[in-house]
Amino acid sequence: MVLNQTRTQEKSNEIIAIPILLKSLELKEAIIAVDAVGTQKNIASHITRSNNKYVLAVKHNQKKLYSKLVNKFDVYIKNIELHNAQNVMVTEERGHGRIEKRSYYYIDDIKDLNLNNDWSGITSIGAFVK
């Protein structure tokens, strides 16, 4: 379902268009998912100012953040037996002659990453591994 859309101006991009689109939707207490290009500090701040929450995809476009998260999950996964088993989910799908197994991890103890100053409203991080 498409609720709204906005055209980007010439020589503009999604990073500028996303806050404009969000403002036009007037969302309150919503969870907003944004792809990697929209993973920007100002967009996270814009979302939380309206009492909304976000799910942002982190890829190499945020090199420092990506590196911090990869390191955090590397340590977490290596020491998984020390953590709450409720923070891990494994799925297995069969199709097209193969089996795909994915592991999903969720961490809400992220104080050591010192992300709150830059990423407004961040409370947890998640990752999946094939």
* Radius of gyration using CA atoms only: 17 Å
Helix content: 25-40%
Enumerate the spans where pLDDT stays under 50 for 5 or more consecutive residues: none
How do the strands of the widest beta sheet line up side by side?
3-4-5
Mean pLDDT: 89
Estimate what percentage of residues fall within beta strands: 15-25%
Shape verdict: globular
Specify the structural class: alpha+beta
How far apart the termini lie comes to 29 Å
Summarize the biggest pleated sheet: 3 strands, antiparallel
Number of domain modules: 2
Total strands: the figure is: 5
Give the SSE order as H and E letters. Answer: HEHEHEEE
Number of helices: 3
Brief summary of the model shown:
The chain is of the alpha+beta class.
Explain the overall architecture.
With 130 residues, this protein is an alpha+beta fold. The protein folds into two domains: 1-57, no CATH class; 62-130, no CATH class. 28% of the residues lie in helices and 24% in strands. The protein is built from three helices and five strands. It has helices spanning 14-25, 41-49, 63-78, and strands at residues 31-34, 53-56, 88-95, 98-107, 125-129. Strands 3-4-5 form a three-stranded antiparallel β-sheet, covered by helices on one side. The longest helix is centred in the middle third of the chain and has 16 residues, at 63-78. It starts with 13 loop residues before the first helix and ends with a strand. The model has no long low-confidence stretch (mean pLDDT 89).
